[in-house]
Amino acid sequence: VQLQASGGGLVQAGGSLRLSCAASGSIFSILSMGWYRQTPGKQRELVARISNSGTTNYADSGKGRFTISRDNAKNMMYLQLDSLKPEDTAVYYCNAYTFRSEDYWGKGTQVTVSS
To answer: Whole-angstrom Cα distance, residue 108 to residue 24?
Structure first.
């Protein structure tokens, strides 16, 4: 499975961004996909996940502000980021988890929120 994230950028606090993740390769093996983020010196943390059936779960930090979605026909996953805060600044990674218990990661896209 190959993943390519895009859509990051610089935005002011209160603004919005939409991240996209394109999946290719062994798409049939994917059970769920998700978005994670990481800042320097910290561990990568969950932002949101979505299963093949559309079940979603969010980290508390993003509840009510972030929305994860998938377009299975296009092999795409999205993360709508609204009401952004400076503490949301991070590199955002897309992830795919397969029925073989494998984790795949994209290269990440930088989100910077200025105050």
So the answer is: 16
Note the residue count of the chain.
Answer: 115
Q: What pLDDT, in 10s, does the model give residues 34-91?
A: 999 999 999 999 999 999 999 999 999 999 999 999 999 999 999 999 999 999 999 9
Query: Do 30 and 1 touch, CB atoms closer than 8 A?
Result: yes
Ramachandran sector of residue 54 (left: φ over 0; alpha: ψ -120 to 50; beta: rest): left
Q: What Å distances lie between residue 89 and 13, 54, 84, 100, CA to CA?
A: 10, 27, 9, 32
Report the chain's C-alpha Rg in angstroms: 13
Tokens at residue 8, please?
């990051």
Exposure of 73 in the CB half-sphere (CA atoms within 13 A): 0
